[in-house]
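Lecture notes, unit on protein representations.

Consider one protein chain, 385 amino acids long.
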Amino acid sequence: MDLNLISSTFETLRLTPPSKLILLEAQTLSSAHYPPFPPDMPALLMGVDSHDLALQVKKVLLAVYPKEHQVYVVDAGKRRPETLEGKKKERLGKFGTGDFSSTTCLYLPALGEGTSFESFAEIVAHLRAPDGCPWDKEQTHQTLRTHLLEETYETLAAMDENDPAGMCEEFGDLLLQILLNSQIASETDEFSMTKVIKSIYDKIVRRHPHVFGDEELNSVDGVLQNWEKLKEKERGELALLKEHQDDVSGVEGKIENKGLLDGVPSALPALTQAQEYQDRAARVGFDWPEIEGVLDKIREEIEEIKHAENPGQITGELGDLFFVLVNLARWRKVDAESALREANIKFKMRFAYVEKGAKGKGRNLSDMSLDEMEALWKEAKKLGM
């Protein structure tokens, strides 16, 4: 690292070098997709020696920084303030244009307090510290379970409404649950947030050999089938480890010989669980060869419902029908849970219109005939509800 270049760069910027600073060779970002440093710290990218590299750096930075974020291009005793979106500023050219050399640097002021994962992890840890929050300090994995479930459904609701602002907020609430549980685990030496991240990092790399390895897979079906093969191999390795678990410290009693469907959470909504079961079975070839087989099965299940003779039989046959309807959704590339949630939302909106219509007429719903309510229902449909 050229200390003279760093010193001269800050002299040109007319800034005192900050107490915390990320120093990085710009070439590090040549094949990156995401900045490898926290945005709440200032950064100096050195050696932006070409137009192409400058454009690549800009592309990576835009994954985190807003387009209007001001940066400084510094070289040969001159500084050029610009924004990442590339608009002209003070009669200067767009970002990524102009002359570049091995001494060209790009200075990024900090994005702001609370914009990095590390800063968020710090405040969550503070909540659990002796001088933290009394409520947070009392929480356990078990007490937080209901909050995780609630936040998950609130996130799904925001997604159903296609509400970007709502999704942004709810994803943050979900992240809080993950960090809080990880902080609790770290205090009892169970695991840490680092281990959580490392575990999923390794899993993603391991299960994407077509991206991070030499394997070639060119279709979604091929990716899913290979994914299941990799998971099957992992289950086999765990089973082998179980056979020798008496010799493995910390493993005894925790490893099970899981089957293909055992990894599907039992707490999932029934439609989601059914579709996941079917997806996993299909990846190993247990599936109808054509969609006509699914449609025939639906007709068969409807006939069996007609001939069911008692509540137990009706319940069983309805369950079979629901299951095969989920299979039809899977064949049509539809998420069954989302489809039913959308239908529920639509029903709620239309029924609210019927209620409003009855109130407008000074009537109670219970006093209206089915034909009257149906007329209001059709009005709601015509309005696109």
